[in-house]
Amino acid sequence: MVKKESVLFVCTGNSCRSQIADGLMRDMAGDRFDVFSAGSHPSRLHPASVTVMAEWGIDISRHTSDSIDEYLDKGIDIVITVCDNASQVCPAFPGDAKRIHWSIDDPFHGWGAEPNDLEPYRDTREELKNRINDFLAELPAH
User: Fold this and answer.
1) Which of 10, 48, 80, 90 is catalytic?
2) How far apart are the C-alpha atoms of 58 and 128, rounded to whole Å?
3) Looking at the predicted structure, is the pLDDT value of residue 124 above 80?
4) Are 15 and 78 in contact (CB under 8 A)?
5) Which residues lie below 8 Å from residue 141, measured CB to CB, with a gap of 6+?
6) Does 142 have pLDDT greater than 60?
7) 86-116 per-residue burial string, b: 16 or more CB within 10 A, e: under 16
8) Which H, E and C letters describe 76-90, residue by residue?
9) Using one digit for the tens of pLDDT, what is the confidence trace for 3-24?
10) Where are the domains of the chain?
11) 40, 65, 94, 126: most buried by Cβ count inside 10 Å?
12) Of the residues 7, 8, 11, 53, which is catalytic?
């Protein structure tokens, strides 16, 4: 059996963008990748992120907001930063981890998850889905 490559999505708080990306990648290519997410300054999983992912049948409600430091010695193959701040402060990973940066607007505007709070999270989900589709399309076929 071939070892799956590991992908780590990184943003600042590990509450919105990296969590949504984590859920999408697991759903779209979990058979090909071990997927994780972390933050440079982890806070907590945003309830609106959980809500908009549930709209697509993806459950991220049990995800935790983790520090990037927890993954430095885990043999991560690909590190994808999804916010500009995280790209600037993301440490170098041991080995030859591939670094990719996607500048994704932060949907965060408070901790609300009411229906009128969700649109920026849906936009973020859609942009991340498109970026992941492009990323997967660029990979060599297995």
Assistant:
1) 90
2) 14
3) yes
4) no
5) none
6) no
7) bbeebeebeeebeeebbebebbbeeeeeeee
8) CCEEEECCHHHHHHC
9) 799 999 999 999 999 999 999 9
10) 5-138
11) 40
12) 11
Q: Identify the H or E element spanning 132.
A: helix 119-138
The DSSP call for residue 140 is P
Catalytic residue from among 38, 53, 82, 83: 83
Tell me the pLDDT tens digit for each residue of 68-116: 999 999 999 999 999 988 888 888 888 889 999 999 999 998 888 888 8
The verdict on domain 5-138 having CATH code 3.40.50.2300 is yes
Query: Does residue 67 contact residue 90 with C-beta atoms inside 8 Å?
Result: no
Active site residue 11: yes
User: Would residue 16 show up in a list of annotated catalytic residues for this protein?
Assistant: no
**Token pair of 85 as six digits:** 């701040």
